[in-house]
Amino acid sequence: MPNLTVENVGTFEVNAGKRLVLALVEDAGVDQLHACGGNCACTTCRVVFVDGEPAQMTVAEKEKLAEKGLSGVRLSCQCLVEQDMSVQIISRLEGSGRPDSGPPPDPSIQPEPEWTSKA
Question: What is the CATH number of the domain that holds 75?
Answer without folding.
Answer: 3.10.20.30
